[in-house]
Amino acid sequence: MSGRKQFDVTAALDRAMHVFWQRGYADASLEALTSATGLGRGSFYGAFGGKDALFRESLDRYAATYGARYEQALAAHPGEPVRAVEAFFDVVLARIADPSVPTGCLIAQSATQAPVLKDDNAAHVRMLLDRQRERVRAALADSPADPSVLDELATYVVAVNQSLAVLSRAGATDAELRTVVRLACRTVADSLDRAAREQPPQA
Fold first, then answer.
1. Domain ranges of the chain
2. In degrees to the nearest 10, what's the CA dihedral of 136, 127, 165, 118?
3. What is the architecture of the domain spanning 51-197?
4. Which of 143, 119, 139 is nearest to 194 (CA)?
5. How far apart are CA 169 and CA 147, in angstroms?
6. Which of 6, 26, 59, 65 has the most CB atoms less than 10 A away?
């Protein structure tokens, strides 16, 4: 093996993930993917099994990378659901501002292309969105609000997150995105306060 260049699967996967992230599934051509990974077609199929399999791997790589950061932020403020949501959005804004990665969000980008995805890939995207919602919902669990209210707020937070990704790709400024986040956090806080006040008194 001396003198033979070793293939770094993780590095190649990261580069392919960036192609899907920047271009979307539909426009991520085989030529672009092989160029990014540095593989010929035969080696590309041998390493990743094809575009669809690589797309799912890229989604999982993205979800693992940023999902861990989301979990850490959401778990850092037990008993403080609003602060947890603020920390979650801090991670989102940091990702958007990172010049080393494409703008937006790979999952949001993929969700907008769900009609052209194969069924299993579209289902995979939805599963990752559901997982994000579950993380946020868990961070809200300490609130005394009715579970249905917390379910709705978790969905709302994820929807705002996806909106931030779309706005950033459209050229929204950091100040504009932070305004959206500030209003979203205020909505969460107001909703939780109102729900707490409406709770019946304990016997």
1. 51-197
2. -170
3. Orthogonal Bundle (1.10)
4. 143
5. 34
6. 59
